[in-house]
Design goal:
This protein is of the alpha+beta class and 379 residues long. It has 16 helices and 5 strands.
């Protein structure tokens, strides 16, 4: 009688024929699950290990399809209610205790199916996330690698992981104090958490040496958002963020990666702390850093006449920084204005200038900047 009851329920289960017609790709997974539930109930027993394999396959399939896990659990309990209704409707009237026994038996079997499905679902999602993260990491590594790239190939890979490749993108480089991996990772999390709510596309995360690289869609006010993120408590002192210029599409963002890394290095050499360094503001610094030999030759030529006169170099630096103001230079150096004037005349004489106003020279400005960046020791 039990087998007959199962057969009647199986044939009369609402939507069964429709599911077989509309979900051909799932029928090999759905059908065994329903059969296992019905056979276990008919046999008045629990599920055997081989009977729960389809439940695991169903969990894996739903994870790949992107169905929320809550939907997977809800579908099992919905199936439980419908099966119980059909079991009662298909057979002869039951005594209350028999109905209770049947409901408990079915609920126990469904609980096992739910547990197996959700465990397989979570495992698959974790594996899928790791795979997607690896694709993102590989993309960033290629963009930052300096080798010629085919933008179309980059964007084809990016679309596999949900990146809107055709919108403007730019790179962000994150470096921590001493390149401590833990500190850099914390800074990365803070930055990603700050940006993610504003983005509709995935942030690509990778690395170049000890520097974390993020490649993301350009946003209005991105620099300000990064500045606020840099000041979060979780960002360690000594962290610097380099910001590359935007490019029209993801496939062209390799240049932005190079700019972000270069801006980060310029900021670190300048001793900046927990700030954002846009590339377009440190282009001159990057040129000096990328050409250290030329930077040293330039600095030596411009500053050698002042060798042995450290006070003169400090005075020149303060004078230029205060907009050629003798008064403010004196205040900054805590000396008398007459002392500043004397030193400036001395500098002009050593450098063969007609007067202090001629100190605004590109070679001298770049030479002093090379000293600030640690590329040349002041004479």
């Amino acid at each position: 009688m039990a087998q007959t009851l199962v057969g009647d329920v199986w044939e009369r289960l609402p939507g069964y024929d429709d599911a077989r017609m509309d979900l051909d790709d799932l029928v090999g997974v759905v059908t065994p699950n329903l059969r296992a539930l019905l056979v276990a109930v008919a046999g008045n027993r629990g599920l055997r290990p081989d009977e729960v394999t389809p439940a695991a396959q169903l969990g894996e399939r739903r994870a790949v399809q992107g169905v929320p896990i809550e939907g997977v659990v809800a579908s099992w309990h919905s199936a439980e209610r419908r099966l119980l209704d059909q079991l009662v409707a298909a057979g002869p009237p039951m005594a209350p205790e028999e109905y209770t026994r049947l409901a408990r038996l079915l609920a126990g079997a469904v609980d096992v199916m739910v547990a197996v499905s959700t465990e397989a679902y979570r495992r698959t999602r974790t594996e899928a996330a790791a795979h997607l993260d690896q694709i993102a990491t590989d993309l960033v590594s290629r963009l930052a690698g300096g080798e010629p790239l085919d933008p179309a190939h980059v964007e084809e890979r990016a679309r596999l992981i949900g990146v809107a490749a055709q919108v403007p993108h730019r790179a962000v480089a994150v470096g921590g104090p001493g390149d401590d991996p833990l500190q850099v990772a914390r800074a990365q999390r803070e930055i990603v958490d700050a940006l993610r709510p504003r983005l509709r596309s995935r942030i690509l995360v990778g690395a170049k040496d000890a520097t974390i690289l993020l490649v993301l869609p350009d946003l209005p006010g991105l620099g300000d958002m990064l500045s606020r993120a840099a000041r979060r408590p979780g960002v360690a002192s000594g962290t610097v963020i380099g910001l590359g210029e935007p490019r029209d599409r993801l496939g062209e963002s390799a240049a932005s990666c190079r700019e972000a890394v270069a801006a980060l290095e310029a900021g670190r050499r300048a001793g900046l702390d927990r700030v954002v360094v846009p590339f377009d503001q440190v282009i001159a610094d990057v040129m000096l850093i990328d050409n250290p030999l030329d930077a040293r030759r330039l600095a030596a030529r411009a500053l050698e006449p002042l060798a042995g006169h450290g006070q003169l170099v400090d005075t020149v630096r303060a004078y230029l920084a205060t907009g050629l103001s003798v008064r403010r230079t004196a205040e900054r150096l805590a000396v008398h204005e007459n002392t500043v004037s004397y030193r400036l005349r001395r500098v002009a004489s050593l450098l063969a200038l007609d007067g202090p106003e001629q100190l605004i020279r590109s070679d001298l400005l770049l030479a002093l900047r090379a000293v600030d960046l640690g590329l040349y020791a002041a004479p």
